[in-house]
Amino acid sequence: MRIIEEIIGKEVLDSSAIVIGKVKDVDVNFETKSLDSFILGKGGISEGLGLSKGETIVPYDMVKKIGDKILLNELMNENIVEEDE
To answer: pLDDT by residue (tens digit) across 37-79?
Structure first.
């Protein structure tokens, strides 16, 4: 999907403009043809080397705007899930 290719690699910022991470994958619902969530890596050199531990899952309904970066509506820690690999 072309849209997914454009989203992967974008930085995700919370409402305070703090970088949470970079999109490394997306969760797509193929039945409804919609994005369910973004899967973020921690970013930086450790992710590039494959040393990053865990990932962060951000529900799509938290997204305010997608442009050069992805901006979230607000910082809602209870809706963000961190998983260890």
So the answer is: 999 887 544 455 454 567 888 899 999 999 999 999 875 454 5
Q: In what order do the strands lie in the sheet with 81-83?
A: 63-66, 70-72, 11-13, 19-29, 34-41, 55-59, 81-83
Q: Give strand pairing partners of 27.
A: 37
Q: What is the pLDDT of residue 55?
A: 80
Query: Which amino acid type is present at position 9?
Result: G
Cα–Cα–Cα angle for 32, 64, 45, nearest 5°?
A: 95
Q: Measure the CA–CA gap between 2 and 45, rounded to whole angstroms.
A: 26
59 in helix, strand or coil? strand
How many residues are there in the chain? 85
Region for 35 from its dihedrals, namely left if φ exceeds 0, alpha if ψ lies in -120 to 50, beta otherwise: beta
